[in-house]
Amino acid sequence: MAHNPFEELLREFQAAYARFGNELFFLFAVTPEERDADPGRINEWAECLGFVPLGDDAGAGTPGYYIFGPLRRFRLGRWAERWEEPFKAFAELAAQAGAVLPVRVRDTIKYAPADPTAWWLAFMWSRKPPSANDLRPPDGKLHNTRVVWAEPFLEAADIIERSGLWTPSGSTDSPATPAGPATPPGPSGAETPKSNGSERTYSVADLREMTGLKNDALNRYAQAAGVETPGRGKRNFRYSLADVPRILNEIISRSNEVGLVKRCKTALKHLPEIRK
Questions:
Q1: Taking 50 as the threshold, does the pLDDT of residue 276 lie above it?
Q2: Among 108, 120, 138, 146, CA closest to 222
């Protein structure tokens, strides 16, 4: 089986979080108008990672946000360098992750970021979008910046794990290959369990039972996860074992319903025990 780069990227984001997690490094958003109004002030203490367009393309005038990371802070009357190292570490990992995003994932993003780093930022935005409160205009008092990811290393690792990108078929655009239960690779480097050769599959009814969702809602989550869904009138459709963790992780990462998330997490733990 081909090597999945997201297995290693998951470990590297986790290792970076262990190293920089207490540095208070964060990423914040700036509108094009704000950046153009006073670019020198922002560039004095922060650096831009990329632009996340929120329109249909990345042309001139496209609405969106520039994502910045702080390099230093003003303290005790002087500028103190503090965040250059975590900024460089995140920029390098984001560029690697954006460069290997599979086509099926890029196709879910309805705009065209400009480079690998921006692709990764756009993917993070699509999976863990800032709230309306996060994006409210700064007031210069208690709310000085639009912090979109307060712990970017941890949040990137969570997104890789919950989206299933690290799984054996997670970084490919070929038909899903049956895989073992969704268990993230640990620090020891243990590999994801392999299929024993007998393909386990699940019906739409099985997925409804696991989640409690109706067909329409289930299909929406499956499509967002890049999983094929049954066509109208198609009978005897079955999901592979590799598809099911993608769908469940998609629901876990996007839903705010505590009961639904709990059911999906329980199903993930017991996938091998659920009937064929």
A1: no
A2: 108
Per cent of the chain over pLDDT 90 is 20
Which tens digits make up the pLDDT trace of 41-93?
777 778 899 998 875 444 445 688 999 998 876 555 555 567 888 999 999 99
Q: How far is residue 20's CA from residue 92's CA, in Å, rounded to a whole number?
A: 14
Locate 18 and state its tokens. Answer: 């262990």
Q: What is the pLDDT of residue 77?
A: 56
For residue 16, the model assigns a pLDDT of: 93
Burial (CB count <10 Å: 0-12, 13-18, 19+), residue 276: exposed
Q: Which bin fits 140, alpha (ψ -120 to 50), beta or left (φ > 0)?
A: left
Confidence of residue 181 (pLDDT cuts 50, 70, 90): very low
